[in-house]
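Help!! Second protein's tokens look totally different from the first
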Amino acid sequence: MRTVGIVLLATGGAFGFVLYFAQDAPLVLGLIPPILIITGGFTFYRGRQQAARKGAAGAMDTPGPKVLYLRSFDSDPSVVRQTFKPLLTAELMSGLASEEELLAEVLRPFGRLVAIGRPGERLPAPGAARVYVDDSSWQAVVNEQMLEAQLVIIRIGSSAGLMWELCRAREVVNPRRLLLVVLKLPKRQVAAAVADAGQALGVPLPLPSGNSALGRPEGIYRFSSTWQPEFLAIRPPVMRRSVYKRLRSGFAFALRPVFEDFGIPWIRPGLSKLTISSLVAVGVVLVAPLLLIAVSLVV
């Protein structure tokens, strides 16, 4: 399904490009590119969901290190958001990968990312391998996984379950193994969400410093052995900011101190060829008029 989705996306884009330059083409043909692109985006996402369900089988019981990912279910991308929003915005350049998938990719050296699945969902969102439990046992499962996981990642949000998880993390998780993620929260909600998380942990958290490329405070809190918080901004160096899978390099640079703290080799993301080319092009555009003026004065 993923392959079919990519083919449909490429075909729709190519057909739309041809129609743009075609003269006297029937108007009805103009409907074909968006239909192909929308169908391709939906098919591609469904294929990723099917692969996620297959890969999640026995996730919690499979031997090997794991990273526990806890979040409010509201932060999970809906099918509509994950399928159609990237097709209408610059997120199309991000490889159609969600932030959860990119986080799982960057944290792979620590272990497999696992999470509790949303009750009643037919197919899981791509990213963490999900396990499904009933309302009477989810707290026991979370508690067990907190004790076993290499890292415990909690994405800051607002829900009663999330507050319980934060309180429980304070009780059973070594602070060096706990990370709090601030991601895609509206600016007006950041201060309240961070304050609630700090209150649940019993640790005052500083407000996030700095903004991401999209203007939102985004980053990761880590803690010392005495619960002293440190905010790691998701803001990679300019030359290593990639449009493709934008958050991957951001996560990698933000988590570098965590990798070093655990003695796990950290791989520096490569230079972004697109970013460098864009900066060179802008430099040429700015410098060229000055050169022309200088030459004209000399002549």
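Here's the second one for comparison:
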Amino acid sequence: MFNSQYDSSMQCSQLKISVPFELCPDLLASRNYHIKKGYLHINCFQWKDLILSLYNTFLREAIKEMKHIPKVHYTIEDERIKEVLVLIRTLYFKNQIDKPKDKQGSFTLKSVSHEYQKFPLCMRNLYDILQKNNRLSHNARFDFSLYLKEIGLSMTDALHFWEKAYSKQHASCSRCTHSWQENEKRYIYGIRHLYGLEGSRKNYSVKSCEQIQNMTLSANEEGGCPFQHFDDDNLRNTLKTCLPPTNFDHIEVVIYERKNSAKHACQLFLTEQLENVFKKEHNDGDIVFQDPAQYFLFAKSENCDK
């Protein structure tokens, strides 16, 4: 029996399979196979390597072709594909159960209206526009969604938040005229995407203060840094809505300072809020933040309370 197996193995090693090299690029890259006249010559007993290589090649080509098919849902309806998707989702959510809980969920839907005064001016401006128009432009909605996610709003609350706003009639001056009723699936997918549950499952983060300050805005663009992009009158009127009347003289100091540094002006504004609005003790040297979420978390941190 041993000799028979040995002879069979020897015979198999002498039999070669010839395959066009372009069908097995990974085998070609390994340099472990002989190539002649455009064909890879593979030993019979290496058939598993050949099958796997062919499968990978055809799979890549199929995925590439799907990108250009206008009706991909036909493919997704394939029972074989459905089974794979169910398996992937099951494994993904099973792995999520054992992961430690992060800050998502520490900021609730009710917190938005209660604590928006602690938002940095850039995000407070977007919130005010949303309250007025019931809509935000695409980029502004993207930035504000990431901010809410970063300060702890759960995905479920995010869905309710945007559904409530976009189910209302948009203002006549709004740049966005889409509604939740007409575009529900699109909005749900977009929010789930930002939370890493769709698409590339990338963990998106809120823009840094530097990125927001360096944004190039058109005349009617929403967003940006008020200390960088607002004119003096607009910034002055905005600051007056955030500070008590007794601090209006300090507003001119902030406006003057923003000409040298928008970031420093924002820090001065937070100092005024901590002292005169939130009634919190602090050391000026401790006010350090790199993005809008850090600003908010600093403004509401317990170690600043009296």
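Reply: Different proteins will give different token patterns, so don't panic. The chain is about 55% helix and 5% strand.
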